[in-house]
Design a protein that fits this description.
alpha+beta; 11 strands
Length: 200
């Protein structure tokens, strides 16, 4: 597993149920086309299809609070099932009755004390959209998913926000440079065919 995987906190609604005597925790770990704020003027949206390859190919764990010692499900073991539907990434965790941590997690979700989640992943493919007001949105098209977590206080890690801010500043500088180059050519009566670049 990489040292710096990306964590994203997602508003979620979990529920518990019984299935053939098994205790189940299930809900959406990510919702498509929903804008997630990650900082001032910075946002992300996960697009349909982003999880299609990873849920079919990769070894993914369900954790409590991103703690790798608190594994409560794993897709390769059949105790975590993940699937994409038209809404997002839906997950089902089969709770181990012999695991005190898993049973405690189930009880907290059942009472409504814990209702949030977070996912840990690498971005495989994304697009960046730069708006006239200076805000930036990343449209995530494909990820490699490492884990899904049921969380008490899901939060972004500050290093991730700072990395995105640095990326945003680079994008803004490139847009400003492109706009200046375009205006310079226009003043000289030249054209470069690069129409459509908005002023920063």
């Amino acid at each position: 597993m990489p040292d710096k995987r990306i964590m994203r906190s997602i508003p979620a609604t979990f529920q518990t149920r019984e299935d053939g005597g098994n205790l189940i925790i299930e809900g959406y770990f990510a919702v498509f086309n929903s804008r997630y704020e990650i900082g001032a003027g910075l946002s992300e949206v996960i697009l349909p299809g982003a999880f299609r390859n990873t849920v079919a190919q990769d070894d993914i764990r369900a954790l409590i609070n991103h703690d790798t010692t608190l594994v409560i499900g794993r897709n390769k073991a059949g105790t975590l099932t993940l699937k994409e539907d038209e809404r997002g990434l839906f997950g089902t965790i089969v709770v181990n009755p012999n695991d005190t941590d898993a049973m405690n997690c189930h009880a907290r979700v059942e009472r409504g004390d814990v209702t949030q989640c977070s996912i840990g992943f690498d971005i495989v493919r994304e697009e960046t959209e730069f708006f006239e007001d200076g805000s930036i949105q990343w449209q995530i098209r494909e990820v490699k998913l490492w884990e899904v977590s049921v969380c008490t206080f899901p939060a972004y890690e500050e290093t991730e926000i700072e990395a995105r801010k640095a990326e945003a500043e680079t994008i803004k500088k490139r847009a400003a440079d492109a706009w200046r180059a375009k205006m310079t050519k226009r003043l000289k009566g030249e054209t470069d065919g690069a129409e459509g670049i908005n002023a920063p």
